[in-house]
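I am writing to request your help with a piece of structural work I have in hand. Thank you for your consideration; the sequence and its tokens are set out here:
=====
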Amino acid sequence: MLIAHDESRGQFVWRANLEVIDEYMDDIMGFPTEFDNKTTNIETLFIAGGKSNYITYGLIFIME
């Protein structure tokens, strides 16, 4: 992912680096299946922006 400044909106936005994703797609899709549907008890920090709808209150319950 890249951070870019969107002049028209006057803010920074995330942009997908499609060239790199395309270049490494085999590696991305080749993630070991032995980890499919596995869980862990490792403490994890999730960060969400105040205006973001990426992490909803319903998902917070699932993540906990």
